[in-house]
Amino acid sequence: MATWAIGDVHGCYRSLRRLLARRTFASSDRLWFVGDLVNRGPRSLETLRYVADLGDRATLVLGNHDLRLLAVAAGAVRLRPRDTFGPVLAARDRDQLIAFLRSCPLLVREEETVLVHAGLRAAWTLPVAGRRARRAEQALRDPDQARPYLEAYRARAATEPLPAGIDGEVLDTIRVMSLVRAVSRRGDPIYDYTGTLADRPAGSFAWFDFPGRRSARARLVFGHWAALGLLVRADAVALDTGCAWSGTLTALRLEDRRVEQTENVD
Ligand SMILES: [Mn+2]
Q1: 61 pLDDT band (50/70/90 cuts)?
Q2: What percent of the chain has pLDDT over 70?
Q3: Sign of dihedral through CA atoms 33, 37, 41, 45?
Q4: Full domain range(s) for residue 211
Q5: Ligand 1 centre and the CA of 55: distance in Å?
Q6: Phi then psi for 56, rounded to 5 degrees?
Q7: How far is the C-alpha of 60 from the C-alpha of 103, rounded, in Å?
Q8: Which of 85, 186, 194, 239 could bridge 44 with an S-S bond, Cβ 3.0-4.6 Å?
Q9: Residue 32: which CATH number?
Q10: How far apart are CA 181 and CA 165, in angstroms?
Q11: pTM listed for this prediction
Q12: CA 130 – ligand 1 centroid, Å
């Protein structure tokens, strides 16, 4: 039994099925999804149903677009024209799919491998990141408790004052784990930066390159940064290869770093 980490699917259901149909994938292999299963691409409903039906075979950490779906489903924010997950909200099994998503973690750790959608603050050791994730997951699992976080967590609101009834540490955990790419000289996320590694603001770092990062001895597996593309290092594995933007969908076998990719066929 092997474990494959799979990059951001973004509703590209046909691409996902085409990738997984390859002979390299055994039916007993575990599938670790880096998050952002939904939105942007055309088949969020099929993708979400498929992964939910995989049961124990699949592990999914929540990405910012999965959180956005939870936020819209909770009535915390409104559906925007660019959101393509409308069919999930209208589906007969909507409640089960939303409950499945709500039950997903923000971070998974197995020995020295960590799965997270975007990244970690440099100051967080693995035990600290794990404790923070568990607290944030608890808040997200309870619909009433989750609502203010789902309203407030958006990247664009990161400089606004903290709304009432919100634990700043939980909000910070949700934001960093689902949104970080570049960080400032001081290590603070620059949430609106979506460009390439080379073009990042002067003096900033990729979160995984911040000097003295305390999780650097582990292998961090993540997605979220399509402009970064595929990156395979001992301490950082980036898997978002922009499937929903006519790029490719990437899977990497954790045991031997074998890479499988497919073109977007959605
Ligand atoms: Mn993302």
Answers
A1: very high
A2: 98
A3: positive
A4: 3-263
A5: 23
A6: -65, -15
A7: 10
A8: 85
A9: 3.60.21.10
A10: 27
A11: 0.97
A12: 20
